[in-house]
Structure formats: C-alpha cells, structure tokens
Amino acid sequence: MATLDVFKADAFSMMSMLAAIENIDYRPQFLGSLNLFDAEPQTTEVVSIESRDNELALIPVSPRAAPLTELSADKRKVRNFSTYRIAKGSTVDAHEVQNIRAFGSTSELEQVQDIVARRLARITNDIELTWEHMRLGAVQGLFLDADGSTLVNFFTAFGVSQPPIVGFDFGSLGASEVRSLIEREIVRPMIRAAKGAFTQGSRIIALVGDQFWDEFINHDAVRLTYLNYAAAAALREPTVFNTFSFAGVDWINYRGTDDNSTVAIATDEAKFFPANAPGLFQVAWAPAEFIGDENRIGRPMTPLMLTDPSGRNAFARVEVYSYPLYMCTRPQVLYRARVSGT
C-alpha cells in the first residue's frame, strides 16, 4: 500500500508543481488568447494607478512684448485598487492510494503523481475560467465576482460616465444605415475617447451574443458588403462562433461556457473595446499570503501541497492560489450595443 509520505518527495515541491501546472493542456479562452492585458506583477496587495490630464490646447495670438499664455500645471490623480484572491483546494485521502504496490517499484510515486496531476488540472481549469470571467468583466469596465456581482466599477473609480447603449433595430435599418450607425455611434467616439491609447496598430473588437450575431450577419448591410468580393464564399459557410470585419470593427460571435450564462455575452448584446491599445488593459498579480512570498513579485498561480499535520498520513491536500486584478484604465472607451425594436 502506498503511504502519503511520498508527498514529501521533490516531485511535490512548489517548483515541481508550478512546472506541472505549466504543462497542463490549456483550455482555449478567447480573451486570454488575445494577450489583451499587460501583466503588471506587484510586490503589494494594492495597485496604484496614476492618471494625468495632458490635453492639447490652442494658443491665442498676443502682441509682441505682451505677457505669455501660461501653461497650466498637470492635474494628476492617484487611485488605489486592491487585488483579490481566488483559491481552490482538493484533499487526497489515504484510501485513494491504498492498493498501489510500492515494494521494489516506483509505481507508488508515479500513480500518486497522476492523482495529484488530475486534481491540479481541474483546479487550474477552474482558475483559468475565472480569469476569463474577469477579463470579460474588464472589457465592460467591471471587475466581477463569480456570481456576477461587481467588485470594482472602473467607470465610478475613474470618475467617468459609461457610454450609452447603442440600439440596433435590424428590422428597420437600411443597408447603408447599419455602417453609418456603427461609425457614428461607436467607432469615431471610441477613437476620440481613447486619445493617445489608440494607435495605428490598434483595432476595435466586438464580442457579440448569439441573437445579435444572427440578426447582424444576415442583414443586407453585411451580405451586400461581401457579395462582390472573394469573401462572398463565407456567406455559404457556417458563421456560428466565427469572426469577420465590417465597418472598422472585428466582429466575433463569442463562445462562452456551454450553459451560455456562466461566462457569456447576453444573447442580444455586443461589447466593443480597443485591442493593441498600450496601457488600456492591465492585470496585476499580487504576491501570495504565505511566509517567503511577502514583498516578492506576484505570479499568476501559487500551488501548495499540505500533508496531514497529525502525523497519521491520513490525507494530503493540494491547493492553488491566485491574486489578480484585471482592470481597464480608460473605461470611457468601452461601448455596448443591444438589439432593439423587437
């Protein structure tokens, strides 16, 4: 019978477990794959964001020898945000490794490692899903808890107004009106609101719910755009969970969790945000709460292996911790739309 003493082996050290986490197959997550968020590891639990108004201004003419127009001092504001902990654990009981034969072989360590690897994989998948949920909140100007409640509202935190919802009445909008609505109500104001954060390499992404996508992709404005191009073949192919560009926006039928609610875009909505916009989206990683991690640079995950403190070797426990804050530093650039007229 295997004993839980094997958990004291090097195979279950923090570094070995970190390597195991890195080798676990990653469940694809769209926002994670965009590399949208600049990583900002921290040495403290609190993140400080400094903003500065740096607007251009016209200079009025003045007579020679007259006093100059004075440049006003920069208006700076520092805002503090707390990181948050997400953590999950699993206990491996002695009976789960009871019949593993250890004498004269290495199977004991190998098979116990398999059990721990499976637990790590499940916990890691849950943490990565939680990160995607947080990213999805951040591109809407919010930091959300697992139940959908708001932990941080970045519009309120930065003292800016949330842009109004743009209504799309696909039943009444003509072919030319859809493009005009997108450019007038979303593209132009977003670029202007982003100021220096929107560069030549930036692009606008729309994450679209199922109903919005179906009505949009089948609207004459979209179909007529592609009929005279080689891309018209795409109109004959399935478009579910697909991507296409129209009116300066990359439209994506966002695929969330299979229940279409845990991590999802509301079926009649679309969320718009800039990508490749320097400094706009950031994720802060705070250090773990354990001795040896204080004042050190935070990392995305911290795994622990804990053995039965009584000395009976009745169980061992694997735990994984993460201390993120996904944020948007200019939430005024985040636009939204909804199907209307139905």
Description:
- Helix content is 25%, strand content 26%.
- The model has no long low-confidence stretch (mean pLDDT 82).
- It is α+β, with helices and mostly antiparallel strands and 342 residues long.
- It is built from 7 helices and 16 strands.
- It folds into 2 domains: 157 residues, putative capsid protein of prophage fold (Super Roll); 128 residues, no CATH class.
Defining key terms:
six-stranded mixed β-sheet, putative capsid protein of prophage fold, 16 strands, 342 residues, 7 helices, three-stranded mixed β-sheet, 2 domains, alpha+beta
**Overall CATH architecture of the largest domain:** Super Roll
**Number of structural domains:** 2
CATH fold node name of the largest domain: putative capsid protein of prophage fold
Roughly what fraction of the amino acids lie in strands? 25-35%
Largest sheet: 6 strands, mixed
Query: What is the topology, as strand order, of the major beta sheet?
Result: 7-16-11-8-10-9
Q: Would you count the extended β strands for me? A: 16
Q: State the fourth-level CATH superfamily of the largest domain.
A: putative capsid protein of prophage domain like
Arithmetic mean of pLDDT: 82
Helix content: 25-40%
Global geometry: flat
Distance between the termini: 66 Å
Secondary-structure map:
Layout: H1 14-23, H2 30-33, E1 38-41, E2 46-53, E3 75-82, E4 86-93, H3 107-138, E5 142-144, E6 150-153, H4 154-157, E7 166-168, H5 175-194, E8 203-208, H6 210-217, H7 220-227, E9 243-246, E10 249-253, E11 269-275, E12 281-285, E13 302-307, E14 315-322, E15 324-328, E16 335-339
Parallel strand pairs: 1-12, 7-16, 8-10
Antiparallel strand pairs: 2-3, 4-14, 5-6, 8-11, 9-10, 11-16, 12-15, 13-14
Helix pairs in contact: 5-7
